[in-house]
Design brief:
With about 200 residues, the chain is of the alpha/beta class. The chain is about 40% helix and about 10% strand. The chain is built from 7 helices and 5 strands; from the N terminus they run E-H-E-H-E-H-E-H-H-E-H-H. It has a 5-stranded parallel beta sheet with strand order 1-2-3-4-5, sandwiched between helices. The longest helix has 24 residues. It is globular, with a radius of gyration of 16 Å.
């Protein structure tokens, strides 16, 4: 896959792989599978580090998040997850792992899916702002990004219905004097680029 151009990989989706545990889905009883990451799963993390591929921990269980963060020598990402402290979904990242993510150098890219923002079917742009600000407070401005998920969600916040609304999100953040233009540039993509460069530095080191 790397030879074909793949540069990041999500370890699971809505079900376990033989070597990685997915986040539990409410109301769905999944068959017994791996707990967190198996020994082979840890080997996958090391191999991704060796190749220079980003490890994506969105969709994995909390135990898999922790084990991957402990194993990876390079920054990891959550490509579309939010803050568990604000919405107690297994797809979101708890504060203690946000702190580990900061030490790892990784990035949480905030999902715009209503059920990961408010844990119900309705949300507003201000809920996205709340998640961004929470991750910024816990992990730091260098570790938060945008991972809206418009290509795969059917429930979006009021005011952020599609990509044309991004300028309104940044305008809302700029109303808070603690956000600088450089901070917004980091949020918009510089944090992800920095993490990717560090992944390649680990590969080349």
């Amino acid at each position: 896959m790397y030879a074909l151009g793949v540069r990041y990989m999500t370890l699971t989706h809505t079900c376990d792989t033989p070597w990685a545990e997915c986040a539990p889905i409410p109301g769905f009883r999944k068959p017994a599978g791996p707990e967190g990451l198996t020994r082979f799963g840890l080997t996958v993390i090391r191999e991704m580090n060796r190749l220079g591929m980003l490890v994506d921990l969105s969709h994995v269980s909390e135990l898999a998040m922790r084990r991957a963060l402990e194993q990876s020598e390079a920054p990891v990402i959550f490509s579309h997850s939010s803050a568990q402290a604000l919405c107690n979904s297994s797809r979101n990242v708890p504060d203690h792992l946000l702190k580990k993510l900061a030490a790892n150098g990784g990035v949480v890219m905030v999902s715009f899916y209503n059920y990961f923002l408010t844990c119900n079917g309705t949300a507003h742009m201000t809920d996205v702002v709340a998640h961004i600000n929470h991750i910024r407070r816990v992990a730091g401005v260098d570790h938060v990004g945008i991972g809206a998920g418009y290509d795969g969600i059917n429930s979006t916040p009021l005011g952020l219905e599609d990509v044309s609304r991004y300028p309104f999100l940044f305008a809302e953040l700029l109303r808070d004097s603690s956000w600088s233009v450089l901070d917004l540039q980091k949020l918009a993509g510089l944090n992800l680029i920095r993490a990717f460069r560090q992944v390649e530095q680990v590969r080349d080191g």
